[in-house]
User: Fold this.
Amino acid sequence: MESPSLIELTKIQRIYLLIASFVLACFLFLLRGGLGLNSEKSLNILALSSLQPEVALNNGHPTIFEFYADWCEACQEMAPSIKSIKEKYQDQIDIVLLNVDNEKWLDLIEKYEVNGIPQLNLFDQFGVIKGQSIGLKNIDQIDQIANSLLNNEQLPVFPGINNLDGKNIAISPLKEDIIVSKISPRSHS
Assistant:
């Protein structure tokens, strides 16, 4: 009598099983970001290759601080764009990545009032803040920002970006059709 637990596989079945196991292992490897291509690793590599913030702000180059987190999907999505811009402007603009989960950067997080990530703080060549960008930006937008910093021009206008006057006060042009009325603490009654 044959035992049902002792089923022998034919040679061809063993080959198919081996191939299926190999394909599944490769798929899982790539899914987990194999070969160092995932954005979380890119963020960490960029952060490790960044200048210290005080060096970047005092070396005569425009500087971009990116406040990010490893778990932030928008930050991970933006990582390849940041890497491209860093390579394109490598000797002209400094890009400094600061992980908000690292207590080492807590003073800068508080100083620049980081309330959302990714947040880009944009500095001129003298280390004076020119603006701030919060949220996901594509490579074209980041390139426009970099060009405006490099050419000492006003920052481009698109959602999530604020021009600052150097004292962290947001400035934006008023539209002429806005009606301004006097508001007092008792206006609600």
